[in-house]
Design brief:
The complex is a heterodimer of chains A (about 280) and B (about 725). In chain A, the strands form two sheets. A six-stranded mixed beta sheet of chain A has the order 1-8-7-6-9-10. Chain A has a four-stranded mixed beta sheet with strand order 3-2-4-5, with helices on one face. Chain A is globular and about 70 Å long. Helix content of chain A is about 40%, strand content about 25%. Chain A is an alpha/beta fold and about 280 residues long. In chain A, strand 2 and strand 3 form a beta hairpin. Chain B has 20 helices and 36 strands. Chain B has an eight-stranded parallel beta barrel with strand order 5-6-9-12-13-14-15-17, surrounded by four helices. Chain B has a six-stranded antiparallel beta sheet with strand order 19-30-31-36-33-34. The radius of gyration of chain B is 26 Å and the shape is globular. In chain B, about 55% of the residues are buried. The chains are: A alpha/beta (about 280), B alpha/beta (about 725).
Chain lengths: ~280, ~725
C-alpha cells in the first residue's frame, strides 16, 4: 500500500504547509458543533492508581478507584463523559504483540495493523473504557484492505487533487499508485505550477505535464477552497457538492465512475450523519 | 561570566603535523568557540545531502548556499546508500551522485568546509534510517525488549527493529562500512586543510530511538553482559553489590536486570536506579565505540561530536559523560514558535553544559509528515536559540531534497526568495552585531538532579513512554509529571513526580521574576559552578554524596545554594549522609495543601527562626563565605509563567540576598530578556513569546544610549526602556559602541 522506496518530492514549501494545515482548518469549520469531550485517563496497577489525568490539559485528577469494572461509577463521580483505564503494562503489551509478528519488509499499513491487533488483544484485558465500546475490536486483514484499495484505485493512476482560490492553485497533492502501492507523493510544484491558474484548460495542461513527468494516467479533481470549507460545515454536504459540480467550482478530469460513486456515497453519508 | 572559560581542547594534531606524519585539522575549542587554524569559526552551517541531488548541480547549489553567508555545509554519508551488497560499495563508480569523494572535492574547491556525519544511524527520513536492510534480517544483531521481542521504531515508510550496538558482529559490520568510506575519502586526506572536513559526527541522535524507558529495552545478551561489567566496575566485588542491594547473588553472571519498576524500600530502589543509570552508559558506550572506529580511520586530528534528538538531554542522555570522549555535542530541534519555552529551557541547559553548544540540526523547512513550519516560525525560533546561548547552528535542510520541503535552496538550484533573504539577513546581522564574540550574562543556575531524573525516567508510566518522550512533547508547557507515577517506591514521598514539579516551579518562577539564569545538572563541574553567584537545586531524601560535597563547596566558596524542599539524609546508595543536612534544620510544622501567595501548593514546611520569631518557609545558613538557603515548599503543578507570577517577588528577594542586582527586568512576566556583553558593549534581546502584542517597560541600571539594531532608531528611556513587541517577535537592542 505504501512503497518502501516512496518518492516524496517537490512538495512546494508553502503548498505543503497549506495542505497539512487544511485538516485543522476544516475541523475548525465544525468547531461550533460543541465543546470537545473531556477524557479521564487512569493508569493503574492492580488495585492501585498510579496516575489519573485529564487528557485535554494533562492535569492530575483525584479519583476513588473501584477497579476497571466500575468505570461507569468513576465517570459519574468525576463527571467525565469518557474514561479510559490502562493497566501500566498495557502499551508495552500492545507493542509486544505487534513486535512479535512484525516483518520489517511488510507494508507499513500491515505493520500498523499489528499494533491494532495488539490493542484488540488487550481490549478489556489491560485496556478499558467507559462507555464500554464493542466487546471485541474487529481488525480487518491487510489483504482485505489492500483488495478494497485496489478495487477503488485503477493501477497506474497519478491522482491530482488541486484546491483552488478563484481558479488559482492554492494547494495541491499528487499521488502515484502502481502495483498496489502508493509510490509517489508530490505536488504541482513538480511541473512548475505550484500556484498556477488552473482555469482555461490549464488543469488539463497540468495533467499532461504530470503524465509526461511521472508516466501513468493522470486523474484530477480541482475544488475551490471556499466550497471545501462550506462542505465541511454544511448541513447538506451532498447539496454543496452537487452545486460545485454544476457551477464549475469542482472540476474533474478522467475521473473514474467508481470515484464518483464514492464521492456521492461519502457526501450522502456525511449528510445523514450531520442531520 | 558563566562560560567555562579556559577549557581548551588541543587536538594533538599539531604535534602530528610537526612530525609531518599526517594531515590534521589545527583546532581547539575555547570559550565555547571552535578555532580552526587559530581563528574562530563562524559556526553556521546548512545540510546538503549529495546523493539526493544531481551531481551536476552540486557546484551551483553550493554557490547559492555561500550566497547566504554560509561557509560550512553538513552531510550524512549513509551506509545503505553506498552499500550495494554485503561488503560491496558504490562510491560513484556506478552512480555519480554517490561520489562522496568528488562531492568533498567540489566543496573544497568552493571554499566550503564540511561537517561529516557517516552514521551508521542517520535517519535523514530514509527508509530504515540508513542501515542496510540485511542488518534487520539477522535477529542475532537486534536488541530485545523485556518480553524478549525486538523493539521496533514506528517510522514511515517502514517500521524496523533496532540493532544492538554492543553486538561485536554489528560493530564489525559498521567497521567494514567505515573502512570502505575512509578508503574512498583517502582517510585523513579529506580533513582540513588538505580537504574540507573540519569535524566528524559519531553516530546520530543516539538515544535508544527515544524509546528510553529503562524497562523497555535492551535485554539482549550483549547488553546484559555490558550491564554486568558496568555493575562490576561500580561495586568492585559481588559481596559489595549484595551488601548494597541486600541480596545474596552468588556471581555476576547470575545478575539479571530488573524488568519492571517495583520497589518496596530505598535499598530496593537502588537496583532500579542503577538499571536506569546503566541506560546512560549503554548510550555513551554506543557512541564511544563508533567514535573509536572513526578515530582509527580518520585519525585524532579532527573534532568528533554527537547530537541529541531533544533540546533538553535528560536521562538516559548524559552530556557530561559523553564529553569525556567527544570534543563537543549539539542538540536538535524542529520547533514551532509556540514551543518557545520547550526550546528555551533546552538551550539554557545545553549552552551551560556543552563545551561548544551547537544546534546540530535546527529546522530549515520541514519533514514531509510533520506539522509545517512557517517563515514566521523560522524567524522567531532561530533568534530564540541564538538569544539564549547557542553558539553555532546547522540548518537542516538548507538544500531541499526528497522527503523534505520548504528549504531556501531547491533541488533544482532555484531559491525560495523569502527564506533565502531571511538566512542572508540572519547571518549578516549576527556578524555585524558581533554576537559570536559576546557572552550571555546569567548569574543564576538552575540544576536538574540527575539521580531524580533517572528515578523519574524509571517511574515513567506506560512504558515505552520515557522522560525523554515527555520532554520532547513539552515537559515545561504542561504538567511535567503527567506521565510519572505518584508511587513512593519505598521512599518517604513520591520523589519522581514531586521533583519534576519542583523543577518546573523553579523554571517558571525564575522566568516570572525576570532573573537571568542558565540551566545545568548535578554532573556540572566545580569550575563551571564557580561562574555562578546562585545555584538552585531541588533536593529530596537522597542525593549523591559527591554532588552534596560539590554543592556545599560551591556555597563555602561564597556562592548561594538554594535547596529544598527536603534536606537529603541519604547518599546515592541509600546510606546515611548528612553533608548538607547537618547544616539544615528540621521543620517545626508541615502544612499539606496550603495556599501561598494565593497559589495552591502541595506542602509547605515551616522552620522556627533562631531568635524565636515566627516560623518561616525559608531560612538561610552561613557556610564558609557563602550560604545555604532552604525553601520548604513542595509545589503543585505550574504550567506557565502566569501561574508562577505570584512567586516572582520571592525569587527577587532570594537573588538580591545572593548579591545579584536585578538587571533589565521586564514589567510584563511574559516578556523574556537576555543580556549579552563584551566590554562596554551590550546586546539586549527582548522576546515576546505570546500571541498578543505587548508593550513593556524594562528597567535597567547601566548602558545606554540604546538603539534598536534592526531599525537603527534610538530607544528612549531614562532608567527604563519602553518597548512595543509584536506577537512572537524578538527585538535586539544595542548599547555601547
Amino acid at each position: 500500500m505504501i512503497a518502501k522506496d516512496l518518492t516524496v518530492i517537490d512538495l512546494g514549501g508553502d503548498n505543503w504547509s497549506r495542505l497539512l494545515k487544511l485538516p485543522r482548518e476544516l475541523a475548525g469549520e465544525r468547531s461550533g458543533e460543541g465543546p470537545r469531550k473531556r477524557v479521564l485517563l487512569v493508569v493503574f496497577e492492580g488495585l492501585k492508581v498510579l496516575k489519573a489525568i485529564d487528557l485535554l490539559d494533562g492535569t492530575a485528577v483525584e479519583v476513588d478507584w473501584m477497579g476497571s469494572w466500575r468505570l461507569d461509577l468513576l465517570a459519574r463521580r468525576t463527571g467525565y463523559p469518557v474514561v479510559v483505564a490502562l493497566e501500566n503494562s498495557a502499551l508495552a503489551r500492545v507493542c509486544g504483540h505487534a513486535q512479535r509478528e512484525m516483518d520489517f519488509r511488510a507494508d507499513m499499513l500491515e505493520q500498523w495493523g499489528g499494533y491494532l491487533k495488539g490493542v484488540a488483544r488487550e481490549w478489556r484485558r489491560t485496556i478499558f473504557s467507559w462507555p464500554q465500546g464493542p466487546a471485541r475490536i474487529p481488525v480487518p486483514s491487510h489483504r482485505m484492505v489492500q483488495a478494497a484499495v485496489s478495487a477503488l484505485v485503477p493501477d497506474g493512476t497519478i491522482g491530482l487533487l488541486a484546491i483552488t482560490e478563484r481558479g488559482r492553485a492554492w494547494a495541491s497533492l499528487v499521488l502515484g499508485y502502481s502495483g498496489g502501492d502508493i509510490w509517489l507523493v508530490s505536488s504541482l510544484d513538480a511541473v512548475g505550477m505550484e500556484e498556477a491558474d488552473l482555469r482555461d484548460g490549464q488543469l488539463a495542461n497540468a495533467c499532461d505535464l504530470l503524465a509526461a513527468r511521472f508516466g501513468g494516467r493522470v486523474r484530477a479533481l480541482a475544488i475551490e477552497r471556499d466550497l471545501l470549507l462550506k462542505i465541511a460545515s454544511a448541513r447538506l454536504p451532498a447539496a454543496e457538492v452537487l452545486w460545485g459540480l454544476n457551477s464549475g467550482e469542482i472540476k474533474t478530469i478522467d475521473y473514474p465512475r467508481r470515484w464518483k460513486a464514492l464521492l456521492a456515497g461519502a457526501t450522502l453519508l456525511a449528510t445523514r450523519l450531520r442531520k | 561570566m558563566q562560560w567555562p572559560v579556559g577549557i581548551v581542547l588541543s587536538s594533538g594534531a599539531r604535534e602530528k603535523d610537526s612530525k609531518g606524519a599526517c594531515p590534521a585539522v589545527d583546532y581547539r575549542i575555547a570559550d565555547q568557540r571552535l578555532f580552526i587554524d587559530g581563528a574562530p569559526l563562524s559556526f553556521f552551517s546548512g545540510s546538503f545531502q549529495y546523493w539526493r541531488i544531481s551531481d551536476e548541480l552540486w557546484a551551483p547549489i553550493l554557490d547559492k548556499v555561500k550566497g547566504m553567508g554560509f561557509g560550512i555545509i553538513e552531510t550524512y554519508m549513509p551506509w545503505s546508500v553506498h552499500e550495494t551488497a554485503p561488503g560491496e560499495f558504490d562510491f560513484g563508480t556506478r552512480d555519480p551522485r554517490k561520489d562522496v569523494s568528488r562531492f568533498l572535492a567540489v566543496c573544497h574547491a568552493a571554499g566550503v568546509k564540511v561537517l561529516a556525519r557517516p552514521g551508521p544511524h542517520i535517519n535523514a527520513e530514509m527508509t530504515y534510517f540508513g542501515y542496510p536492510e540485511r542488518i534487520f534480517a539477522d535477529a542475532d544483531l537486534l536488541a530485545r525488549c523485556a518480553d524478549g521481542t525486538h523493539p521496533v521504531l514506528p517510522a514511515p515508510p517502514r517500521m524496523f527493529p533496532l540493532p544492538c550496538y554492543h553486538h561485536p558482529r554489528f560493530q564489525a559490520e559498521v567497521r567494514t562500512y567505515f573502512e570502505a568510506l575512509a578508503g574512498s575519502l583517502g582517510g585523513e586526506r579529506c580533513l582540513h586543510p588538505s580537504g574540507p572536513v573540519i569535524a566528524i559526527q559519531a553516530d546520530n541522535e543516539c538515544s535508544k530511538f527515544m524509546r528510553a524507558n529503562p524497562f523497555d529495552w535492551d535485554y539482549s545478551d550483549h547488553a546484559v553482559r555490558l550491564y554486568r561489567s558496568w555493575l562490576q566496575s561500580r561495586y568492585g566485588t559481588i559481596d559489595d553489590l549484595n551488601q548494597a542491594y541486600g541480596t545474596r547473588t552468588a556471581s555476576w553472571q547470575l545478575i539479571d536486570p530488573p524488568r519492571r519498576m517495583s520497589s518496596a524500600s530505598a535499598r530496593d530502589l537502588l537496583r532500579m536506579l542503577d538499571w536506569s543509570e546503566f541506560g546512560e552508559h549503554y548510550i555513551n558506550e554506543s557512541v564511544r565505540s563508533i567514535a573509536a572506529m572513526l578515530r582509527e580511520l580518520f585519525g585524532d586530528g579532527v573534532p568528533y561530536f554527537h547530537n541529541y534528538p531533544v533540546t533538553l538531554p535528560v536521562s538516559p542522555l548524559d552530556m557530561t559523560g559523553a564529553e569525556e570522549f567527544l570534543d563537543f555535542q549539539g542538540v536538535d530541534a524542529y520547533p514551532q514558535k509556540t514551543a518557545y519555552h520547550g526550546v528555551r529551557c533546552g538551550v539554557k541547559y545545553t549552552s551551560a553544559m556543552s563545551r561548544l553548544p551547537v544546534m546540530a540540526e535546527f529546522s530549515s523547512g520541514s519533514i514531509y509528515y510533520a506539522l509545517p513550519l512557517s517563515l514566521d516560525d523560522q524567524t522567531f525560533t532561530t533568534w530564540s536559540i541564538l538569544m539564549h546561548g547557542i553558539r553555532g547552528v546547522n540548518f537542516y535542510m538548507i538544500v531541499e531534497r526528497e522527503r523534505w520541503y520548504g528549504s531556501p535552496v531547491k533541488r533544482d538550484g532555484g531559491i525560495r526568495s523569502k527564506h533565502y533573504a531571511f538566512f542572508t539577513s540572519l547571518l549578516e546581522r549576527v556578524r555585524a552585531w558581533g554576537l559570536e564574540e559576546m557572552t550571555c550574562e546569567r548569574p543564576v543556575m538552575l540544576l536538574l538532579n540527575r539521580e531524580y531524573d533517572r528515578l523519574a525516567n524509571a517511574a515513567s508510566l506506560l512504558s515505552p513512554v520515557s522522560l525523554l518522550i515527555q520532554q520532547f512533547t513539552g515537559m515545561f508547557d504542561r504538567p511535567p509529571d503527567r506521565f510519572t507515577s505518584d508511587e513512593s517506591y519505598g521512599l518517604a514521598e513520591p520523589v519522581a513526580s514531586r521533583y519534576l514539579r519542583m523543577l518546573a516551579f523553579w523554571y517558571w518562577a525564575l522566568t516570572a521574576s525576570g532573573a537571568h539564569f542558565a540551566m545545568g545538572d548535578t554532573s556540572v563541574s566545580p569550575e563551571t559552578l564557580s561562574g555562578y553567584r546562585m545555584v538552585i537545586v531541588p533536593t529530596f531524601e537522597f542525593m549523591d554524596a559527591g554532588v552534596q560535597a560539590r554543592l556545599l563547596a560551591f556555597a563555602e566558596a561564597g556562592g548561594t545554594l538554594v535547596l529544598g524542599p527536603r534536606a537529603p539524609s541519604l547518599d546515592g546508595r541509600m546510606n546515611l549522609c548528612d553533608t548538607l543536612a547537618r547544616h539544615l534544620r528540621e521543620p517545626t510544622k508541615l502544612l499539606g495543601d496550603a495556599d501561598l501567595f494565593g497559589v495552591h501548593v502541595d506542602e509547605l514546611a515551616l522552620y522556627a527562626d533562631d531568635d524565636s520569631g515566627p516560623p518561616s518557609m525559608t531560612y538561610a545558613v552561613e557556610v564558609g563565605s557563602g550560604r545555604l538557603v532552604h525553601l520548604g515548599l513542595v509545589a503543585a503543578e505550574l504550567c506557565g509563567v502566569a501561574d508562577a507570577g505570584p512567586f516572582a517577588p520571592m525569587v527577587d528577594t532570594l537573588t538580591r540576598a545572593a548579591g545579584i542586582e536585578p538587571a533589565f527586568v521586564p514589567s510584563d512576566h511574559s516578556v523574556d530578556v537576555a543580556v549579552w556583553s563584551k566590554g562596554q558593549r551590550l546586546l539586549i534581546f527582548v522576546a515576546n513569546p505570546t500571541d498578543s502584542a505587548i508593550e513593556t517597560n524594562i528597567s535597567h541600571a547601566r548602558g545606554g544610549p540604546f538603539v534598536d539594531l534592526e531599525t537603527g532608531e534610538a530607544v528612549r528611556g531614562d532608567g527604563t526602556l519602553t518597548l512595543a513587541l509584536e506577537p512572537y517577535s524578538i527585538r535586539a537592542i544595542g548599547a555601547g559602541a
